[in-house]
Amino acid sequence: MSALTAAGLFGKLTSGPSQPVPLTYKGHVVLDGEKTRMRDYVPSVPERDLQLPVVLLLGTSMSAGKTTTAKVIVRLLEEAGLGVIGAKLAGAGRYQDILGMLDAGADHIFDFVDAGCPSSAVPEEVYQGTLNDLLSRMADTDADLVVAEVGASPLEPYNGAMVVDKLWPNVKCTVLSATDPYSVSGMIDAFGHSPDLVTGLATSTKAGVELVEKVSGIKALNVMDRDSLPKLKSILEDALDL
Fold first, then answer.
1. For the CA atoms of the chain, what is the radius of gyration?
2. What residues does 31 pair with on adjacent strands?
3. d(CA 149, CA 88)
């Protein structure tokens, strides 16, 4: 096995650019003859439908800038006086991502670990139950809306596509964080959805912003540039009818 994240996620590495810390499996915690699992210790909640509007953060890959964008959006919505849920709904358990949303002003934070799943890279039938449980927990809050990040890309094996399909009726604004301008068009072609806005590494320079807009025809913003924040705020207000 390998240490797959610094947060303590262990598993079998099948591919990747890094060489993680190797681990040797010695055994499993067993109670009454049964292996214990995280979800065995998650209190059950009544099933609820999530009816809150959603700002959905997608990426062309990991480390494309989704969490950075999410934090900026959370801050703008909090400054507008709204109660915000910050959520990461697919990926590998990494608490710092949703803690960043909390630091940005989110009133509540959630990820799949709250439903007893250390990673969403599990069989679809397993994650379907996890996702329903997680959304029920999110629905049981006093928030006004959700800023939801889908880890990695929805085309990668983290069940991101399932998350998008489940949330789509609630999605009011879709933001794609891209690693390069050309990946935007590739993502649109492969996934079939056009985002309302492009952010991320591809927009870190003025030339990058212009190329994204030229190649894809979609508005692009560098959210780390304070001069772009009024435009981002306007996009969110229009999408959410604020």
1. 18
2. 34
3. 5
Q: How many CB atoms lie within 10 A of CB 39?
A: 15
pTM for this structure?
0.91
Strand partners, 59: 177
Roughly what angle, to the nearest 10 degrees, separates helices 229-240 and 66-79? 70
* pLDDT tens digits, one per residue of 162-220: 999 999 999 999 999 999 988 898 888 877 788 999 999 999 999 999 999 999 999 99
Instruction: Map residue 56 onto helix, strand or coil.
Output: strand
Q: 30: how many CB neighbours lie within 10 A of its CB?
A: 9
The string of pLDDT tens digits covering residues 75-120 is 999 999 999 999 999 988 778 889 999 999 999 999 999 999 989 9
Both structure tokens of 24 = 């040797």
Residue burial 53-72, b: 16+ Cβ < 10 Å; e: rest: ebbbbbbbbeebbbbbbbbb
Domains of the chain: 1-36 (no CATH), 54-240 (3.40.50.300)
Q: Name which of 149, 128, 132 is nearest 85 in CA terms.
A: 149
Instruction: Classify residue 70 by its DSSP letter.
Output: H
Report the C-alpha gap between 162 and 146 in whole angstroms: 17
**DSSP secondary structure string for all residues of 9-55:** -EE---S-SS-PPB-------EETTEE--GGGGSPP-------S-EE
